[in-house]
């Protein structure tokens, strides 16, 4: 009897401690987030309405030359730097600029000593790396890390998507609505409405007004969610498996009960 009481008391203590730790963790994340109204220790050149940098932040310096647009979402441990090192005077113009609605996934790095610009509504998965600087190795006698890097501006067009782990190298110029596959390494120019993959990245699919996507997409576009659908209906829809419904025999034919098609992901 005493053993059961002791076991119940220990379990209650563990549950209570767990709740308190998670509650405290949520409070810390909320209090440590950076917004326009609560900039914390940072003094960005501009930070737009609705923009939020999740806590904990990564390395951030050169904030006066970093301009963040409206409604940006910047995940945990994201590094944003302007200049080679803290404390430099980089002149009157911004060096790193994010447009409106930019999303930077957890652990991403944006390193800018030359101009790096994101257009509006650029979405990045986790651990994306964008840099205007690359190491040089011209002098075989000097350690590579001590040699002056090669630098070139970078621009990423509005509406683009950068997959997890993508690397954007100095001098890259991405057009509008470009898809960069996960793990791709991009350099040079990428035209509008292109899909690139590989290391180094190459174009694997493009959209043309007269021919559409070439090569054609292998799956149909996802169906939009009907207007007015409730959260409960969406949850029920997600549980449906179109290929697993019961099959019934009727007049010698195999038929499935009609099902509502769920959203499907189109080819990238």
Automatic annotation (TrEMBL):
Query: Where do the coiled-coil regions begin and end?
Result: none
Name the chain's protein.
Acyltransferase
Region (Disordered), start-end ranges:
211-268
Tell whether Lipoprotein is among the UniProt keywords. no
Q: Could you tell me where the Basic and acidic residues compositional bias lies?
A: 245-257
SUPFAM superfamilies (UniProt xref)? Trimeric LpxA-like enzymes
- Entry's Pfam families? Hexapep
> Which InterPro entries does the UniProt record give?
Hexapep (IPR001451), Hexapep_transf_CS (IPR018357), Hexapeptide_acetyltransf (IPR051159), Trimer_LpxA-like_sf (IPR011004)
* PANTHER family tied to this protein: ACETYLTRANSFERASE C18B11.09C-RELATED, SIALIC ACID SYNTHASE-RELATED
The alphabetical list of record keywords is: Acyltransferase, Repeat, Transferase
Family the entry assigns:
Belongs to the transferase hexapeptide repeat family.
This entry's Gene Ontology molecular function terms read: acyltransferase activity
């Amino acid at each position: 009897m005493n053993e059961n009481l002791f076991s119940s008391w220990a379990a209650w203590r563990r549950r209570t401690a767990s709740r308190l730790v998670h509650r405290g963790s949520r409070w810390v994340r909320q209090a440590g987030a950076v917004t326009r109204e609560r900039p914390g220790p940072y003094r960005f050149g501009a930070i737009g309405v609705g923009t939020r940098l999740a806590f904990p932040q990564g390395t951030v310096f050169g904030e006066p030359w970093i301009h963040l647009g409206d409604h940006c979402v910047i995940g945990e441990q994201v590094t944003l730097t302007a200049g080679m090192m803290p404390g430099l005077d980089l002149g009157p113009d911004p060096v790193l600029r994010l447009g409106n609605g930019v999303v930077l996934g957890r652990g991403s790095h944006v390193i800018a000593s030359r101009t790096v610009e994101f257009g509006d509504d650029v979405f990045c998965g986790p651990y994306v790396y964008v840099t205007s600087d690359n190491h040089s190795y011209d002098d075989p006698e000097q350690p590579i890390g001590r040699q002056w890097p090669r630098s070139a501006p970078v621009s990423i067009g509005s509406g683009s998507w950068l997959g997890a782990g993508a690397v954007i190298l100095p001098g890259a110029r991405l057009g509008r609505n470009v898809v960069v596959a996960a793990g791709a390494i991009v350099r040079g120019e990428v035209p509008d409405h292109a899909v690139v993959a590989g290391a180094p990245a190459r174009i694997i699919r493009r959209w043309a007004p007269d021919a559409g996507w070439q090569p054609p997409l292998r799956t149909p576009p996802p169906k939009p969610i009907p207007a007015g659908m409730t959260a409960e209906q969406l949850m029920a829809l997600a549980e449906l498996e179109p290929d697993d419904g019961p099959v019934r025999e009727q007049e010698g034919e195999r038929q499935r009960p009609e099902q509502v098609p769920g959203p499907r992901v189109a080819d990238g």
